[in-house]
Every structure is written in structure tokens, then in C-alpha cells.
Design brief:
This protein has 1503 residues and is mainly alpha-helical. It is built from 52 helices and 16 strands. The relative contact order is 0.05.
């Protein structure tokens, strides 16, 4: 940089300034000169004010001052034994240098005050003698005595004083002449060269003053740059001088400090004052008034002050100075200058220089500054020839060595202690070594670093730090630091043994160190620089991982980087491997061209780290797992594409698909030994993604093979690939072309095998280790939940075993002692019950097994009651009525009840919902439509006049309709009931039949058959009189008691008028009865006298009854009513009659029907183009398919099924349009799934005001709320909505509000005139149904959790850091908003990489149980599984939010409470007769007219 400029290096010691540093007293005898100096300086010192008040100087002329300076100059060169004289001389100059200050001291001579710069330059030059050894004195000899050491200490104190005074004077001076600045800088360079350039010896003056003289030199130089910028000659002199003492570690401490401060100032100039936020300028070393151009020039020149740091790896270059050569000539033990003992610290200095460059690079990348380096490090004791054949073994040995005691005797048995520290310390720790560190210090450092490695894990997957968005490009940083870093990264990559290193050219990747004939010390062999090399590789990895979207990197840089990393991964030194893995988690997810060539080497390195059981750095394992998660999608993506060797372009090491088994083993083996909670969760997410991708890939290949289409194997071959090159490697992999196993060999990495391995491993670890860790147990259950949904034809035995393991987990958690029970424990139990629900609904055959059914029901019983009916085999069974219900918690009981309801209602009949082919919703309105024309009837009339309502068991609301449906031609006791239970609404039509339907149809006109009568009817005796009592009764003698009741004849006229009147009345009754009986007897006689047979007496069937009390019959048959009970029926615990005529009943019933039996969630999807920050721009991207990524619409369709809000009965993404009742006509006109999808798309386009062309080419705007994407299962509903600007303007009316909103509705939900226009979009019954949703909102307030989840598709990954999530909350309205929630709970960012894969970033609030899985921050997923994994992650996030919320009530519990509330509010108070009487009376206003209906009476409807 200064090659055309001259240097002053040769004259700084005894060149042009030699005359100014000489004294006239040198011509006198030493003793005489000493006496003169002593007399003069004692007089001058007496006027300085040290021991008495200062007085004006007696020197009034320049001649006198010149003579005095000659005397003091000689005094400064006296031997160190004359310490007092030297001290007085220093005092004089320190006081006289105040002439440069704004106000000089009174003791300064007047000529000096008049010409301050002139005399200051003379004094500064003469102070040079203070820092030099005296003639004839050998400092190392003097340092061997205590007296000499004390003398040197005194000299060091004087030097410190001079440096302090000089620095203060320069700072205080307002104006210095350029010549004075040059003199000061040359003086500082000269004293540094005099003290630091000789070989360092412990305890010498250089050892004591090294840090001080260097700091003053650099700080004063910075001041000079601000006030009088040094000339190129001075810069070149400084550079050459600094290169002479690069064997001093303090030089690099100061160099790093100054460079970091200047780098911060430069970056703030270039990128704004907030770019470097933590710039700590101790003492304002960089002047604030320094111009921007000056700062940049100063920074660049200081950066190159020490030359190339890689020279530190070559002792021959460092020792090629005059002082080292003189030492080698004068010493018998040193043959070559490079053999000096002080050079043993070069490896440590090299590491320190690389750490300084790392700090500057981190500043460029926007990373926070690292802690300052530690001064001491660990000495090395291992043999230089120790090599490790494989990276697997050393990692295990290192970890085992570290896990035992810290005794130094164990160090020699394994790798050096520095290797141990390299694994157990972070990147910010210093691991360099110098030979002066004590054993106690090394142990303390090791203990501190090891304790740091076992610290508490982070609570989130989201990294705590990130790079600045506006950071410079990779090429710019490499232009600046690349030559040093690449050369350092390749240092000692090919070490030689026996203490020899071959000499090569400077351009070689292995820099030469020494001639072949020289034996160098073990401490400075080329392989000892591995720590600095590891730091350089870490820097390069961070630089290349900082690549931004769309940024191009020069191919030459990429090639050199890949070579350096490949060599580093093959290195036997663990520090190099650790540095690469720790600093490159983003290596495979930043679109580096050709980075896949490193995949085999990285997989091999991960196999050395992740499966290790010993204690390793947690951040290293986390970075390794991140690398693994970014690679597991590559084998299925590139298949048989070969991976070229880095150093041999004509050979191929392997193919991508061949790495699949190794990646599978890495995931499972790492999961077996991992102990960190966050790392386990990441591995579980990666394992779920890997199994899903494997299953999807195999399914795709089966379909492609079955249809004869092209296999995906060849889809990724380049069009330019020649047939010859393809045939070269395809023959070896034909058996793997379709991912199928070889003949006679089982495919151990197939989806089925991975499914079995995963379930076995996760279940085993869940029960044995993870059960006490809530985040891990939740993530494991989420993994099992996802595995249950994968359509893999697994072995039923394995599935049954999985269900049993989850049951064992529930039993174990519930059986823990009371002190262990907490909300977190119960949350894991609830999640386990939800996992069982998924497995049983997707694998209904499991309950066909008697043992599995018993196990599941036993767990359900345990969850509901808290105990088992039979604790141990052989014990008596305890019935339900005999047990006390003491569940573990109400949440656990509710979860168990939900599982029991699913077993009885859904298992065996559940099929994955299509989103459009749903069962019609049957309610009273629909039932009555089969019998009557209800167009003129209101809802209240239908409810109160035609249906009876009862609440059974405080949890079932029964609506009974006693009329036969219109299409029933076979009158039977018929009742239609609408059941409203906690798990939904069902409709049943029941008939009371005594014969099967095919045998029970009899015509009402045909007489009932009877046998023919016999002509012989027997003998009739008419004279026989029948007696009421036997004849023996007449012979019994009466007693007085028999006569207590007198006969009728006893009463006569004497008895009284009243008695006579009553007797006459009774007589008349008897006479009338006698006459009637005689007339009947005569009529019968007449009939019997006629001839036989008599048609009049023939038996005939009675007319068919058209009226039945079917409600009474049904409730009686079910055992809910009985005549033996005469109590008040309104208070019966099992049956409560409901008065449906009360005014609020209809409102409560609608609220109950609008309360879903499943959880409901909403996900809003956004598309962000490159650089967009404005919400309006983001919302408008999806209007056209030309504005979005080609795979964006495909991704949307993989999330769910398109449905139309106007024809959907479930959750729609907003409470105002959800759970509405559709008309019977609307429900019956819906066709099959495919027809419905097409109709939905057309209707959506029409309702959105889009033409057919716009509908076909929309970019997602079709699903802005009028239509949306829907997915559901037995327990969950989720709606995916793509907000748009159009939906934001009129969508609040058309989409979010169907009817009038209440005044207290959230802002943006009020109906406007626009809404009135849009009401025509929906059928009348839907509009009426949504006229008043405010009451429903109030009823559900606090019971529904509004989890805001965003899915954001990014064109530029950097846009994820400034996504306007808060501003877009207004476009994500669900009607359940909480004013306290200002940001979404989870944001899933999706960035499409150039290779066709997708990078994931998760952001959101921090939960106690962590972020959801299976997606993990930093994961790279395939196109096949993207939609499925995003949906699962959103569902799991919503579930975790509900588990953490104390006020959340499960859907079936909300419905149950609502039914109980209705039973309490609307119960009727009836006595027993009144209760039974109502069954014999038709409901008020009901009609018996029958109309032909449209549906069969035997159909069963479910909601």
C-alpha cells in the first residue's frame, strides 16, 4: 500500500534525530559530567513546586535553555543506578512539556513558552534515552537479581509517567505544528521499537511496558489522524515497525481494540447511526470531531498495520528481524532465529488475530460484539504426532475425558486439554495458549467454560440474535477479509510429522514455515495453529451464511470456501470441526450455489457429534441439528443426482438418495441420546417431517408406477445432461431408482420401517425420560398425533402397541403423587387423550381387538372417575355406582369424556372430511318441513307448538315430535327426536313395531282371521242361580258383630225423614239396575236363539288407531318415567320437562346450536413480494396469479378444501357467519364432492364480482372470506383465509357480518349500507340467522380462544424481519378479538428456495410449553409436505394456546353447561298428574294433517 513511499524505520533510533539526542557533556569525564547534571537538575527541580511552591525559571535566553537541555539529555542517559538523577530529569521535562498546554506552568522558562513546539520537539526526542538500555549494561543479567528487578520497576514507573504526561499534553494542546505531530509519532514508534522488537523475555522492561506503550502509540495516532493526518511515510514506518514486534500478543490486543472501534464508526457512517448499537469507545479513543473520510482512511490503514496475519503461522518470517538475528548469533543454544522460546506463543497470537477479524466481520454482519478475550490459556502437553483416524472416535474420547476429573494427569491419555475446551466452550471463549498460565488458572477456566456449556437451554426455537437486514454483500466482505481468511482456513490442512514442514510457495494452500533441515520447537509446528484456523473457518461460514436472497457470490469465492470447509471437516482436530458446525446452521438454506457438494462430509461430521452420549456443547448440538433439519429433504428432492467430489471434479462420491438411510439413523440416534429440551423438540419436528416426506414420496411413486407415468427419479436431471454421463452412474443405482429395496433385502428406511422405529422410540422415551418435561412431552404427543394421520399401512400390532403405550403414559401421569400434580402435568394428560382420539378415529380396527378396547376404556374410566374398576387382576370388580368420582382434575375428566364420546359416536364411521360433502343439519325446522308447510310459521311457533322438550341426565336436550312423517304409509307409534348432546346434534326417527318391517304390514280393511265355530255348543242350564257365597255360609250362626250393620228392612218411618229418603233412593237404583240386567238378559237370549253362524256376532278387527302418546311410550320404554314415582317431575335428576313457550327459550336454543362441538381456528395467509412493507401492497398481491409464486396457489389448495360461506354450516373463519342453519332445499341440492367443489369455485367467483377469467387466474384472492379453505376432523375445524384489499373495504360487510351487528360490536363489524346490498348474496334464512350475533359473542366471551396465526409466503427471506404483522391484524378479523392482543400468536414464514425446497421461519409469542411442531425454525421442507406440515403446526399451536389458557372450556363442556343452564332456567313445575296429563294432550297448535315428505322415516341424521 505504501511501496512508492520511503520509510523512516532505519532512522527512528539513531538517524536524523541523533544530534538532538546528544549532549555536550559526553566530552567530559563521566564522574564530572554526572556532578554537573546533579547540580543543575537539583536547582531546576527546586523551582518546579514538588517540595516547595513553584517559582519562575531563571533561564531567560535561548542559549541558557539550550545548555540546560544538553544537561538534562545527558542525565536521562545515565546508568539506572543513578535513579534519583534520572527521576529529576524526568520531572523537569514533564513540567516543561506543559508549554504545549493552553496555560503553561509558572516554572516553564520564558523561551520555552515563546517557542513551545520547537523546544517540545527537542525534549520529546531526548526522552527517548529513558526507554533504552545503557551502554555496557546487559538487561537480562540484571534481571536475575532482586535489586535489578527493583531498578527496572522504578524505570518502568518513570516511563509510565512520561507516557501519561505526553498523552495528556497532546490531548490538551489546541494547536500543534505538523512537525511536532511527526516528532511525537516518531518518538512513540521509536520507543516501541526499542522495547518490543527484541525477543521477549519474561519480566523484562518490554514485558512491563508492552501494553502501555502500544496503547499510547495507537491512541495518540488516532488523535493525530483527527488533527494532523500522518503522512504516508509515517504510515509506512508504523507498519514496518509493528511487523517487527508481532511476536508480542499485546500488539494484537490493541490492534483488535482499535480496529473494532474504527469499524463501528465506519459502519455507522455507511449504514446509519443505529447499525452498530453496542459500540463501547472507552475514553472516546476515536475523536468525535473526526470527519467521515478521515475515519474511513484511518480504519483501512490501521487494518493493514500488522500486515498479513497469516504470517504468524510462519516463524521464519516473524523472526527475520535484526534483533532476532543478533540473538541467534550471540546464543549457542539457538541455531536459527525461529527457535527462540518467545515464538512459542505464535499459535495463540494467530488465534487472537483471527478472533479480532471475527469481531470486525461480526460488526459488518450486524451481530453483537463478543466478550473480550481472556489473557490466559491452557498449555499443551500432547504429542505432536498424535493423529486420529476418524472423526467419530476422537469426539467420543474427548467427551469422556472431559466428563471425568480435571486432573492434568489424564490429559496425556487423550487429546490435549485445548481440545477439550474447544468442544465445551462457546465461540466467544478464548482457547489460545501461552506457557505462563498456572495450573489453578487453567482449572478455573475449564470449570467456568464447562459450566457455561451446561447452562439452561433456551425457551424458544427462535434465535436470540440475527444479522442486520442492510448488511453488506458477501462479496464486499470477502474483498476486504477474504485473502486473509481463505489462507488462514487452509493453514496446516496438510501437516507433516517429525517436526518438519515442507517449503512451498506463498500461494500454496499449505504455507511454508521452515527449511527442511531445521528442527523447530514442538510449540510452533504448523499443526499447532488449528485454533486460529478454526476461527477463520468459523468466520467464513458466518460470512457465507449471511447471503441474502437474490445475492450472487463470485464462483472463485465459493470454490475456495468449499475446499476450505471440506478440508476442515476431514480434519482430525475437533476444534476445526466444532467451529464449522457451530457457525454454519444456515449453510443449506441460503441458496448457495453448489453447496450440496459438502453434504457427504457434513453428514459424516454430524455422525461424529449427534449420536454421542457424552456432554458436549449445547449450542454445537443445536447448530448440528439445524444443519440436519436443512438436509433431510434433499435425498427425496434430488434422488439419484450424483454428488461430486470437492477436489476431484471427474469423480462422484455418492448420490443423494444413498444418504437417506444415514440421515434417518442420525435423527433416531440423536434423539436417543439428546438431553436438551429445545434440541429434542427440533429433532421430533424433523423426524415427523422425514416420515411424512417418505410416505408422500412412496405414495407418489406408487401412483406414477401404476399409471405408467414418468418416475420422479428423472425429473431433476438437467436437460443438458448427456446420455453418456447419465449412463455412467445410473447402472449402479437401478435398484434404487424408484426408492424400492433390493432383491432379498428389506428396506430399512421405508415409510413403514420409519413409522415403526419412530413410534417405538418416541413412546419408549416418552414413558421413560420425557414424561417430566412438559414441552418435550407435548412435542412427542404431537409427533404421535401426526403419525396417526399418515396413511401408512402399518402393522396392526404396532398400532395397538402405540395406543397401549399412550395409555400407560396417561396412567403413569395420573398416578403420580399429589405434590407432583400441576397444570403442566394435566396439560400433558389432556394432550395424550387428544392423541388417542386421533389414533382411534384413523385406525378404527384397533377397537376390534378385545385387549386394546379394554385398555382404552380402562383409561377412560380412570380419567373420569380417578380409579379403576379392577386395580389388579383377580380383585373384585367395583361397579360404577360403588365408586366415588374423584378425577385427577376437571380438565382430565373432560378430556376422557370427549374420548369416550368419540369412541361411541365416531370410531368406525368417521371419514376424513372433504370440506364440502357434509351431512345436512337437521333441526325442528327441517323435521316440520316433512309434515307441514312452515313458510308462514315463525321459529318460535314451530318450537313451542309442535315439539316437546326434555333434559335428560343434565346433559341431553331432547326435542320430540310425535307426528308421523309425511311419507310413512304404515301408521305406527312414531316419534322424531332431535338430540342436542355435548358432542353435537343428532336426529332420529323411531317407530314402535311388534313385528319386523317386512312382516308387519297388514291392511286395515281385511278382518282378522279366526277359527271356524263348532256346531255343538254343549248343554245350557238356565234354571241355575248363581250364588255369591257357598251354601255353608247360610248355616253359620250370626253373632252380634254380624248384626252391627242392620239390613235395609230395619229402616222404617221411625228412623227419620233423612234415612227414609236415602232408602227410597237406593231402592230406585236397585230397581233400575234389575230392569237393566233383565233387558240385557233378554237381548242375549234373543240373539242366542237365532241360527248359527251369525254375522252380527262375528269378530272384527278394531279400526286402526291414529293417535299415540309416542313421547310417553318412548320415555317409558327408556325408563325415564314411571307411575310408581309420585314426586314433582320438575325436580327429577334424570328427566326435566322444559317449557318451550318462555320468551328466551328460542334465543338459548339458537345459542346452543351455534356452539360448535369442535374447536375452531382461523389461519390468515399473506403473500409478500420482494421488499414490501405496506399492508395495502401486501393485500393486493393475490389479485392476480402473475403476482405470486407459481406454487403459491397449489400450496393454498393443499391446506384445505374450497368451500362457499353461504353453503357451509361449520366454522367459516368468523363467528358472524359460522354454524348457521341452511334450508332443507339448500342441503338436499348439494351433490358429491367434485361437483360441489366446481360449484363452489363458480359461486365464489360470482359473489366476489370476478369474471370467469379472473376466477381461473386469481392468485388466492378467491379465498378472501366469501369462499375459504376448510379442513376438519372429529375434534377440530380450521379455516384458511387469504385477506385482500377488496375484502378489507367491503368484505367486513359481505364476509364478516351477515346481519345487523350490535352497537357494542368490535370496530369494523357494524353493518353499513354496503352490507344491505351484499345481503342478497346469502339466502333469506341465512340472513335471518345472522341478524343478531352479539348475544352469541357475549355468551362465548372468554370461552373461545382467538389464536391469531399468520402464514406468510416470502419472495425475500429478509422481509420476514420487518413484516407488518400488527398493521395486518385489522384484516384478520374473526369476531372473537381480544383488545389486549396486538400481534399474532404465531407467524409461519415460507420462503421458496431456488432448488425447489422451502425454508421455514417461525416467529411469535413465547409459550411456556414452547413453539409447536412439526415445523421448526430453520427447517427446509419439500413441496409434497409443505401444506400438511403448515396445517399441523397451526393446529398444534392453537391446541397449545388452549392448554395454557386457564379460562378455556372444551366445546363439549360449553355445550353441556349450556344445556344445564337451560334445564335450570326453563324447567316446568308440574305435579305427577299434570306431568302425565301433558302426554295425553297434543302440543298446542299442532295439526294432524299429513303431507308427503322428501325423506325416509328411517334415516338417521347427525351433525
Amino acid at each position: 500500500m505504501y511501496w512508492e513511499w520511503a520509510t523512516l524505520t532505519g532512522s527512528i533510533g539513531n538517524g536524523s534525530d541523533k544530534f538532538e539526542r546528544s549532549s555536550v557533556l559526553t566530552s567530559l569525564p563521566p564522574e564530572s559530567a554526572k556532578e554537573v547534571v546533579g547540580a543543575v537538575v537539583r536547582h531546576v527541580v527546586s523551582t518546579l513546586g514538588i517540595s516547595q511552591p513553584p517559582s519562575p525559571s531563571s533561564f531567560d535566553s535561548d542559549v541558557e535553555v539550550e545548555w540546560c537541555l544538553q544537561v538534562v539529555c545527558y542525565g536521562l542517559s545515565l546508568p539506572l543506578a543513578d535513579h534519583e538523577i534520572i527521576k529529576d530529569c524526568v520531572s523537569i521535562y514533564c513540567e516543561w512539556l506543559s508549554c504545549l498546554a493552553p496555560i503553561p506552568k509558572i516554572s516553564v522558562p520564558k523561551p520555552v513558552v515563546d517557542r513551545p513546539d520547537f523546544y517540545a520537539r527537542k525534549m520529546i526526542n531526548q526522552l527517548y534515552h529513558l526507554f533504552l538500555p545503557r551502554k555496557g549494561e546487559v538487561w537480562p543479567f540484571l534481571y536475575r537479581t532482586d535489586l535489578a528487578q527493583d531498578t527496572i520497576n522504578r524505570q518502568a514507573i518513570l516511563c509510565h509517567r512520561v507516557l501519561r504526561i505526553l498523552q495528556n499534553v497532546i490531548k490538551a494542546s489546541e494547536s500543534l505544528e505538523p512537525a511536532t505531530w511527526s516528532t511525537c509519532l516518531l518518538f512513540l514508534i521509536a520507543i516501541n521499537d526499542a522495547i518490543l522488537s527484541p525477543p521477549s523475555i519474561t519480566g523484562d522492561i518490554g514485558d512491563q511496558l508492552c501494553d502501555r506503550v502500544l496503547s499510547v502509540l495507537f491512541e495518540v495516532w488516532l488523535l493525530a489522524c483527527a488533527k494532523s493526518f500522518p503522512s504516508p511515510t509515517l504510515w509506512k514506518t508504523l507498519r514496518e515497525s509493528c511487523q517487527c514486534f508481532r511476536h508480542r500478543s499485546n500488539l494484537f490486543d490493541q490492534w483488535n481494540r482499535i480496529n473494532l472501534l474504527l469499524t463501528g464508526r465506519v459502519l455507522n457512517i455507511m449504514y446509519g447511526p443505529e447499525y452498530v448499537k453496542h459500540l463501547e469507545d472507552d475514553g472516546n479513543l476515536v475523536p468525535a470531531n473526526m470527519s467521515d473520510d478521515c475515519v474511513v482512511q484511518t480504519w483501512y490503514r490501521f487494518l493493514h498495520t500488522i500486515g498479513n496475519p497469516v504470517d504468524l503461522t510462519q516463524p521464519t518470517i516473524i523472526s527475520q528481524t535484526q534483533n532476532f538475528l543478533q540473538y541467534a548469533i550471540s546464543s549457542d543454544a539457538v541455531v536459527d532465529p525461529c527457535q527462540h522460546p518467545c515464538l512459542s506463543v505464535l499459535p495463540s497470537i494467530f488465534h487472537k488475530s483471527m478472533a479480532g477479524i471475527a469481531g470486525m466481520v461480526d460488526a459488518f454482519l450486524g451481530l453483537p460484539p463478543r466478550p473480550m478475550m481472556m489473557e490466559g490459556t491452557i498449555p499443551e502437553h500432547s504429542s505432536p504426532t498424535t493423529t486420529i483416524p476418524s472423526p467419530v472416535a476422537p469426539m467420543r474420547r474427548l467427551a469422556k475425558s472431559f466428563s471425568v476429573a480435571t486432573s492434568t494427569s489424564n490429559v496425556s491419555k487423550g487429546n490435549p486439554r485445548t481440545s477439550l475446551l474447544g468442544i465445551t466452550t462457546g465461540r466467544s471463549k478464548d482457547t489460545s495458549s501461552i506457557p505462563t498460565l498456572s495450573h489453578s488458572q487453567s482449572n478455573s477456566i475449564q470449570s467456568v467454560q464447562s459450566s457455561g456449556s451446561m447452562g439452561a437451554p433456551s425457551k424458544s426455537f427462535i434465535p436470540s440474535t440475527r444479522m442486520e437486514i442492510g448488511r453488506p454483500k458477501v462479496n464486499s466482505i470477502l474483498h476486504l477479509f477474504g485473502p486473509w481468511l481463505f489462507e488462514s482456513a487452509l493453514t496446516c490442512s496438510e501437516p507433516k510429522h517429525d517436526g518438519e514442514v515442507r517449503r512451498t510457495s506463498r500461494s500454496s494452500s499449505v504455507p511454508a514455515a521452515l527449511p527442511e533441515s531445521i528442527d523447530i520447537p514442538h510449540a510452533i509446528t504448523i499443526d499447532k495453529y488449528y485454533q486460529g484456523r478454526a476461527e477463520a473457518l468459523g468466520i467464513l461460514c458466518r460470512i457465507f451464511c449471511s447471503k441474502k436472497t437474490g445475492e450472487d457470490i463470485l464462483p472463485s469465492y465459493l470454490a475456495r470456501f468449499y475446499i476450505a470447509v471440506h478440508k476442515g471437516l476431514k480434519e482430525t482436530r475437533s476444534e476445526v470441526l466444532v467451529s464449522i458446525l457451530s457457525n454454519s446452521p444456515d449453510l443449506f438454506r441460503v441458496d448457495l450455489e453448489g453447496v450440496t457438494v459438502l453434504m457427504p462430509a457434513i453428514v459424516e461430521s454430524l455422525e461424529a457429534v449427534l449420536p454421542t452420549k457424552d456432554a458436549l456443547r449445547n449450542d454445537l448440538r443445536q447448530s448440528s441439528i439445524q444443519l440436519l433439519l436443512s438436509m433431510i429433504s434433499l435425498p427425496f428432492h434430488f434422488l439419484n443426482v450424483p454428488i461430486k467430489e470437492v477436489l476431484d471434479k471427474n469423480s462422484y462420491s455418492t448420490t443423494f438418495i444413498q444418504l437417506k438411510p444415514r440421515l434417518a439413523n442420525l435423527l433416531t440416534n440423536a434423539l436417543q441420546v439428546e438431553t436438551d429440551s429445545v434440541n429434542i423438540q427440533m429433532l421430533l419436528g424433523g423426524l415427523m417431517m422425514f416420515v411424512s416426506d417418505t410416505a408422500a414420496f412412496e405414495e407418489l411413486e406408487k401412483s406414477s408406477v401404476g399409471t405408467g407415468t414418468e418416475s420422479p427419479t428423472n425429473l431433476f436431471l438437467s436437460e443438458n445432461t448427456s446420455m453418456r454421463s447419465f449412463s455412467d452412474y445410473s447402472n449402479s443405482f437401478d435398484e434404487h431408482a424408484l426408492g424400492l429395496p433390493e432383491s432379498g433385502e428389506s428396506c430399512i428406511d421405508s415409510a413403514h420401517a420409519l413409522f415403526i422405529r419412530t413410534t417405538y422410540l418416541v413412546c419408549h422415551r416418552l414413558i421413560s425420560t420425557w414424561k417430566t418435561d412438559l414441552p418435550v412431552s407435548i412435542a412427542a404427543l404431537e409427533l404421535l398425533n401426526g403419525l396417526g394421520r399418515i396413511g401408512i399401512k402399518a402393522d396392526p400390532l404396532e398400532c395397538r402397541r402405540t395406543v397401549k403405550w399412550v395409555c400407560d403414559f396417561i396412567i403413569h401421569q395420573c398416578s403420580r403423587p399429589p405434590p407432583s400434580h400441576s397444570k403442566d402435568l394435566h396439560s400433558s394428560i389432556v394432550a395424550a387423550f387428544q392423541c388417542q382420539t386421533t389414533w382411534l378415529t384413523h385406525h378404527p380396527y384397533l377397537l376390534d381387538d378385545k385387549e386394546t378396547l379394554h385398555t382404552v376404556l380402562e383409561v377412560v374410566e380412570f380419567g373420569i372417575s380417578g380409579t379403576k374398576s379392577q386395580s389388579k387382576p383377580g380383585e373384585p370388580v367395583k361397579m360404577k355406582d360403588e365408586k366415588d368420582l374423584k378425577p385427577v382434575s376437571l380438565r382430565v375428566r373432560d378430556a376422557a369424556e370427549a374420548l369416550l364420546a368419540v369412541i361411541f359416536e365416531q370410531v368406525g364411521r368417521y371419514a376424513p372430511c372433504s370440506g364440502v360433502k357434509t351431512s345436512p343439519s337437521v333441526d325442528e325446522y327441517t323435521v316440520l318441513s316433512q309434515v307441514h308447510s312452515q313458510e308462514t310459521l315463525t321459529k318460535t311457533e314451530i318450537i313451542s307448538n309442535y315439539f316437546r322438550y326434555f333434559v335428560i341426565d343434565h346433559s341431553i336436550l331432547v326435542s320430540l315430535f310425535e307426528e308421523a312423517l309425511g311419507n310413512d304409509q304404515d301408521p305406527q307409534p312414531t316419534v322424531t327426536m332431535v338430540l342436542r348432546v355435548p358432542t353435537g346434534r343428532h336426529a332420529w326417527t323411531l317407530q314402535l313395531r311388534h313385528l319386523p318391517r317386512n312382516k308387519g304390514k297388514l291392511s286395515g280393511n281385511n278382518p282378522t282371521g279366526r277359527p271356524l265355530p263348532m256346531t255343538v255348543v254343549g248343554t245350557r242350564y238356565d234354571d241355575i242361580q248363581h250364588r255369591y257365597f257357598p251354601e255353608s255360609a247360610d248355616r253359620i250362626v250370626f253373632c252380634k258383630a254380624d248384626k252391627a250393620i242392620p239390613p235395609l228392612d230395619f229402616f222404617n218411618s221411625e228412623s227419620g225423614d233423612q234415612d227414609a229418603l236415602e232408602q227410597s233412593r237406593l231402592s230406585m237404583i236397585l230397581e233400575n239396575q234389575i230392569r237393566l240386567e233383565k233387558s240385557v238378559e233378554n237381548m242375549i237370549r234373543e240373539e242366542t236363539d237365532e241360527s248359527y253362524p251369525n254375522l252380527r256376532t262375528e269378530a272384527q278387527a278394531p279400526p286402526v288407531s291414529q293417535e299415540f302418546q309416542t313421547a310417553r311410550l318412548l320415555l317409558s320404554n327408556l325408563g325415564f318415567i314411571t307411575v310408581q314415582d309420585g314426586s314433582d317431575f320438575s325436580s327429577l335428576p334424570k328427566l326435566v320437562a322444559i317449557d318451550s313457550r318462555l320468551p328466551d327459550f328460542m334465543e338459548y336454543l339458537e345459542t346452543l346450536d351455534s356452539t360448535s362441538c369442535r374447536t375452531c381456528d382461523t389461519v390468515h395467509v399473506f403473500y409478500v413480494r420482494n421488499g414490501q412493507k405496506c399492508p395495502q401492497e401486501i393485500l393486493s398481491n393475490v389479485q392476480s396469479r402473475a403476482n405470486v409464486h407459481p406454487h403459491f396457489v397449489e400450496f393454498l389448495l393443499s391446506l384445505g378444501w374450497p368451500v362457499n360461506v353461504s353453503e357451509h354450516e361449520g366454522w367459516t373463519g368468523n363467528i358472524n357467519t359460522s354454524w348457521k342453519r341452511l334450508s332443507h332445499r339448500s342441503s338436499t341440492l348439494r351433490g358429491h364432492t367434485e361437483q360441489k367443489c366446481n360449484a363452489t369455485l363458480q359461486d365464489d367467483g360470482a359473489q366476489s364480482g370476478l369474471t370467469q377469467k379472473e376466477t381461473d387466474f386469481h392468485g388466492g384472492s378467491l379465498y378472501n372470506g366469501d369462499s375459504f379453505l376448510y379442513w376438519s376432523d372429529v375434534a377440530s375445524e380450521i379455516a384458511f383465509i387469504v385477506p385482500t384489499t377488496a375484502g378489507q373495504q367491503c368484505g367486513d360487510a359481505a364476509v364478516w357480518d351477515v346481519g345487523d351487528a350490535s352497537p357494542d360490536s368490535p370496530e369494523g363489524l357494524h353493518m353499513t349500507s354496503t352490507n344491505d346490498k351484499n345481503k342478497s348474496k346469502f339466502p333469506k334464512h341465512i340472513v335471518e340467522h345472522g341478524e343478531d350475533r352479539s348475544k352469541l359473542k357475549k355468551a362465548l366471551n372468554g370461552k373461545l380462544i382467538d389464536t391469531k396465526i399468520f402464514v406468510v409466503w416470502l419472495e425475500s427471506f429478509e422481509d420476514s424481519f420487518h413484516f407488518p404483522s400488527s398493521a395486518l391484524m385489522s384484516s384478520a378479523v374473526t369476531g372473537l378479538e381480544n383488545e389486549l392482543v396486538k400481534d399474532p400468536s404465531l407467524i409461519i414464514f415460507i420462503h421458496a428456495l431456488k432448488n425447489g425446497l422451502f425454508r421455514i421461519r417461525l416467529a411469535g409469542e413465547s409459550l411456556r410449553m414452547g413453539l409447536p411442531t412439526p415445523l421448526v425454525d430453520g427447517m427446509v421442507v419439500s413441496r409434497r409436505t409443505l401444506g400438511n406440515l403448515v396445517r399441523q403446526t397451526a393446529l398444534n399451536m392453537a391446541r397449545r394456546k388452549r392448554l395454557e389458557n386457564d379460562s378455556f372450556q372444551p366445546p363439549h363442556v360449553r355445550r353441556k353447561f349450556k344445556i344445564q343452564e337451560m334445564a335450570t332456567k326453563f324447567a316446568t313445575s308440574l305435579s305427577c298428574p299434570e306431568f302425565y296429563t301433558q302426554f295425553f294432550q297434543s302440543p298446542h297448535g299442532s295439526s294432524h294433517e299429513h303431507y308427503d315428505g322428501l325423506s325416509s322415516t328411517t334415516t338417521v341424521h347427525h351433525v
